[in-house]
Design brief:
The chain is an alpha/beta fold. The protein is built from 17 helices and 13 strands. It has 2 domains: 203 residues, Glycogen Phosphorylase B (Rossmann fold); 178 residues, 3-Layer(aba) Sandwich (Rossmann fold). The strands form 2 sheets. The chain has a 7-stranded parallel sheet with strand order 3-2-1-4-5-6-7, with helices on both faces.
Length: 392
């Protein structure tokens, strides 16, 4: 089977979608498919992108097609470079797996696939969630126009829409999309982290943390990630556990100034460490050393960061809006409402009860091994393609 993945950018600063697209393509290639990924060049981020791919099993089997981003405004809006490439090359592929909603590469590739009669799958990656759709009046109007003019039509003509969970499927239907829906979760390659770093590596890089237990946030610094809840919860928890620290790791996506102001206003700057983006071994070192990973998100599709924490045996504290109820059902972590006091209680439970933390961490690892590895997910996806009529 010949599968072309399309995504606007491969830059890991863009969060989960690039990581998912690369690993999904690599897993398919490892199982015998002929896969490639079409994206725009990211000038200035080449080293970062290359580093993010280093440990992905099978990534060398995936062809990378990088087109230059358009120079003119009209060209960027229309995705002219991606459209031109697709016009000349789509006939080589059995199916397109397209990641995103609003990006020019998404609109251009889906439009051209539809014109040429080539089946395509669209993955919103939670971008159609009602919470995200109504953020700021200007964006709400812009998205509504885009949906009415083109996006809904492209989604409704997809072979199927690749949803990450049942809650996302509900949001997709609310957006007026009637194409078939298939729930296919994200996964992880356990081979990427076969030998976890020795404990202490992260602390050695940041000696100011000392030997104190710390809560780790590892994601984009964005409003939807719930850092306002996290900082308030930490402020409450550290009053009961004075030696507790908070580490905030991730690229700024518009909220860093507000978060830093909140930290300063609470007078907890000496206990909170904002360390910037972390990738590869540095990321896993942080997870190994952390007392817990906390993501009190307002909205998630299917967080790769949660999977990575579980795989590293780092206890997790997540919100129901992370849409990962299996964590609660398997007692593989703590799911708490977006209530700072409840989040603080969860922090305290993990930090003060070593037995609970250890048992929870082991259950988290077991959950990933049993249900969320890329090879298993890709096997199911291959059957789904075939059910819709795509063959070798």
């Amino acid at each position: 089977m010949r599968i072309l993945h399309v995504i606007d950018s491969l830059d890991p600063r863009c969060g989960g979608p690039p990581a998912v697209a690369l690993r999904l393509a690599a897993a398919q290639a490892s199982q015998g498919a002929d896969t490639a990924i079409l994206s725009y060049q990211t000038f200035g981020g080449e080293e970062r992108i290359a580093t993010s791919m280093t440990a992905i099993p099978g990534i060398h089997r995936v062809a990378k097609v990088l087109v230059d981003r358009e120079r003119s405004l009209v060209g960027r809006i229309l995705g002219s470079a991606a459209r031109d490439w697709c016009r000349n090359n789509l006939s080589k592929w059995d199916i397109l797996h397209i990641h995103g909603v609003w990006d020019p590469a998404v609109r251009a590739s889906a439009s051209e696939a539809l014109r040429q009669g080539i089946p395509y799958v669209l993955v919103p990656h939670a971008s159609l969630d009602p919470w995200g759709m109504r953020q700021t009046p200007a964006k709400r109007v812009k998205k509504a126009v885009a949906m009415a003019v083109q996006i809904r039509h492209l989604y409704n003509n997809a072979m199927f829409v690749h949803s990450l969970n049942a809650t996302e499927s509900e949001g997709i239907r609310i957006a007026g999309i009637r194409a078939p829906l298939e729930i296919i979760p994200n996964g992880i390659f356990l081979d990427e982290i076969p030998m976890l770093p020795e404990p202490g590596r992260f602390r050695a890089k940041f000696p100011e943390i000392k030997d104190d237990p710390f809560i780790l946030f590892l994601s984009r610094i964005h409003l939807k990630k719930g850092l306002d809840f996290l900082v308030e919860a930490f402020d409450i928890a550290h009053r009961k556990i004075p030696h507790l620290r908070l580490v905030i790791a991730g690229p700024d996506d518009g909220e860093l100034v507000k978060v830093q102001a909140d930290i300063a206003a609470r007078g907890i700057g000496d206990r909170v460490h904002v360390v910037g983006p972390m990738f590869g071994l540095d990321k896993y070192s942080a997870l190994v050393d952390a007392a817990a990973f906390c993501l009190p998100s307002r909205m998630e599709g299917f967080s790769v960061a949660i999977l990575e924490a579980l795989a590293c045996r780092c206890p997790v504290i997540i919100s129901p809006q992370c849409n990962f109820p299996e964590v609660r059902h398997s007692d593989a972590g703590i799911e708490v409402p977006l209530d700072p006091r409840r989040i603080a209680d969860a922090m305290q439970q993990i930090v003060t009860d070593a037995t609970f933390a250890k048992v929870t961490a082991e259950r988290g690892r077991q959950l990933v091994e049993e249900s969320y590895t890329w090879p298993a997910i890709v096997s199911g996806l291959d059957k789904t393609y075939r059910r819709y009529g795509v063959a070798h």
